[in-house]
From TrEMBL:
Compartment(s) where it occurs, according to its Swiss-Prot or TrEMBL record: Cell membrane
The name this protein goes by in its record: Permease
Span of the signal peptide: none
Family: Belongs to the UPF0718 family.
The species this protein was found in: Anaerobacillus isosaccharinicus
Length: 343
């Protein structure tokens, strides 16, 4: 690494540390700031952006921490040979086990990106990682419990959400496999990662590394790397939530087609954590169709503003655009089918 790259890397790290310190300072001193600064002089929209931004960050940070520690544990304790050993040899046959695996980990869409990124770096096929990426944020037990409590009076939403998520995760994984099977390396690799990859192939360590220390180092690196993109995504989501005219979208939600589209837009823009989105969806139940509520609950955890920013940071742009188009199309068509023939 030359001097210019070293300075650039150091500047990014310092910026990440500064942003985290500012966030912690504001978080722990919010009451003092409120009492010393008159918010009445600020525009309501600015106060609203700040409130939504902070709420998204507070909601997402615990799950980012969970995700980066899981990612670090995978990096240190899970070898490429282990992943290859447990994955079915048949490419399409690996899709169903991946969807089932997604139901085990209590990881939301905020934390799933670093985990999937690490698994793919360890040798997991791209399409299998995609199944985990779209399935785990919905199928995990915490989301099952929150959806049950939010829709106790309407179990159709509960069953439809998880049944549809399981099937669509497999379908989306299969589509990604056929599109990218000739070029499955869709991660963005830094120079340091590529150099490290080459070194590990050539050099065999003579001393046993301290795995606990390595886990902490990797978790810290992942946290600052993911954190800055989460902050950017949360800020964009807060701007959309504040300045998007929801009354216009609600006016469009009068039939099955437009209401499904509107609720998918809401899911993308609101960028809610999947552990909490069921309670927000329940508040829309009187104004939108059951199918559109299901679309909201399925589409949001698979794709929203904040995880789009994170995906663009760590995956190639072409893959992200194809992924977004695939998820949007598949969810919309499947919900339309559900409304026409089942609900």
């Amino acid at each position: 690494m030359n001097l210019k790259e070293s300075v650039s890397s150091l500047a990014k790290d310092l910026l990440g540390v500064a942003l985290l310190l500012v966030f912690l300072l504001l978080f722990f001193n919010i009451e003092k700031i409120k009492s010393s600064v008159s918010l009445s002089n600020l525009p309501d929209s600015l106060v609203n952006v700040n409130t939504i931004f902070i709420s998204i960050i507070i909601e997402a940070f615990p799950f980012i921490l969970l995700g980066v520690f899981v990612s670090a544990l995978i990096q240190i304790y899970v070898s490429e040979d282990t992943i290859q050993k447990f994955l079915p040899k048949n490419a399409l046959g690996a899709l169903i086990p991946a969807a089932i695996l997604g139901a085990i980990f209590p990881i939301c869409e905020c934390a799933i990106v670093p985990v999937v990124r690490r698994l793919i770096k360890k040798g997991m096929p791209l399409h299998v990682g995609v199944v985990f990426l779209v399935g785990a944020p919905i199928l995990n037990p915490v989301v099952v419990a929150s959806t049950y409590y939010a829709f106790r009076s309407n179990p159709t939403v509960l069953y439809s959400r998880f049944g549809l998520a399981f099937i669509l995760a497999i379908v989306i994984g299969a589509i990604i496999y056929f599109i990218f099977r000739k070029n499955s390396d869709q991660l963005k690799w830094s120079k340091e990662e590529l150099m490290g990859k080459q070194v590990t192939q050539i050099v065999t360590p003579t001393t046993k590394p301290n795995r606990v220390k390595q886990t902490m180092y990797h978790a810290a690196d992942e946290f600052f790397m993911m954190g800055k993109y989460l902050i950017a995504g949360a800020f964009i989501a807060a701007l959309f939530q504040t300045f998007l005219d929801r009354s216009i979208l609600q006016a469009l939600g009068s039939n099955d087609y437009s209401s499904t589209f509107v609720m998918m837009v809401f899911a993308y823009v609101l960028s809610l954590c999947s552990e909490a989105d069921a309670f927000v969806a329940a508040s829309f139940a009187n104004n939108f169709t059951t199918g559109s509520i299901i679309a909201f609950l399925v589409y949001g955890p698979m794709l929203d503003l904040k995880n789009t920013v994170m995906l663009l940071a760590f995956f190639k742009t072409k893959f992200v655009l194809v992924f977004m188009a695939t998820v949007t199309t598949v969810v919309f068509i499947s919900v339309m089918f559900l409304q026409l023939f089942i609900l």
